[in-house]
Specification:
- The chain has 246 residues and is α/β, with parallel strands linked by helices.
- It has 2 domains: 89 residues, Elongation Factor Tu (Ef-tu), domain 3 (Beta Barrel), CATH 2.40.30; 105 residues, Nucleotide-binding domain of ferredoxin-NADP reductase (FNR) module (Rossmann fold, 3-Layer(aba) Sandwich).
- It has 8 helices and 15 strands.
- The chain has a 7-stranded mixed β-sheet with strand order 10-9-8-7-11-12-15, with helices on both faces. Strands 4-3-6-1-2-5 form a 6-stranded antiparallel β-sheet.
- β7, α3 and β8 form a beta-alpha-beta unit.
- α5 runs parallel beside α6.
- The longest helix is centred in the C-terminal third of the chain and has 14 residues.
- It is globular.
């Protein structure tokens, strides 16, 4: 178990209620794999740590994106550069390595672990969000690390109107990808997995569940799989799509 005191380099709002937290954490960056997460101690006010996905490990800095939606993340959004955060991680398993180019498919905050995958693998990305503001900052984050960027917005305020599932068949027909990695709402991931099954393309999904301990002891994040009950924090958060969506 690795615990780090990481210095906050920046904690910026990049879209409404969405923050980019950058930490000076070279040791954590060195041991992290794309798809893993950390448990963050926000303050002594909160008993439980908050699980947050690792979005980047470039240059010894760990980048994390989060949405301020409750007391814990609201408190986190008030933390400033120069302060330190107590971090437990890296936790869980990561995405598998594949030969050739892979396709990353993400929606909303599910794009965070996929950004880390884009840094480590040869990839294109399909980005989905509700509005222009929710996708343009992701576009800039992914731009240096991927070949092609495809974008959909629910309201049609930017790029193609609709959901990633609407654009996915067109994307898959244009190139032979060695695998699909996806993270986001479960209904989206299930749809992505369905297309992957039909095309016989390996597909891995990243599950997001409420976690208490993050170490597999409390069972709060258990899910049903074809191989029985599994814990997202310890057995995941990355699963073969056939294991959870068969």
């Amino acid at each position: 178990m690795n615990i780090f005191n990481a210095k906050i380099l920046s904690n910026e709002e990049v879209a409404e209620k969405i923050f980019r937290l950058t930490l000076d954490a070279p040791e954590l960056a060195k041991i992290s794999r794309a798809g893993q997460f950390v448990q963050v101690k926000i303050s002594d006010e909160f008993t439980l740590r908050r699980p947050l996905g690792i979005a980047s490990t470039a240059g010894g800095k760990v980048k994390i994106f989060y949405r301020a939606v409750g007391r814990g993340t609201e408190k986190l959004s008030a933390r400033r550069a120069g302060e330190s955060l107590n971090i437990l991680g890296a936790l869980g398993n990561g995405y598998s390595a594949y030969d050739g180019k892979i396709l990353l498919v993400g929606g909303g905050m599910g794009l965070a672990p996929l950004l880390c995958a884009a840094e480590q693998f040869s990839a294109d990305v399909l980005i989905g969000g509700r509005t222009r503001d929710e996708v343009t900052f992701w576009q800039e984050e992914f731009r240096p690390h991927v070949g092609k960027i495809f974008i959909t917005t629910d309201d049609g305020s930017y790029a193609k109107k609709g959901f990633v599932i609407d654009l996915l068949p067109e994307v898959l027909s244009a190139e032979n990808y060695s695998a699909i990695l996806t993270c986001g709402p479960e209904i989206m991931m299930r749809g992505v997995a369905k297309f992957a099954f039909e095309k016989n393309i390996p597909c891995e999904v990243s599950f997001e569940k409420r976690m208490a301990c993050g170490l597999g002891a409390c069972l709060s994040c258990s899910i049903d799989t074809v191989n029985g009950r599994k814990k997202v924090c310890k057995d995941g958060p990355i699963f073969d799509a056939k294991e959870v969506f068969a």
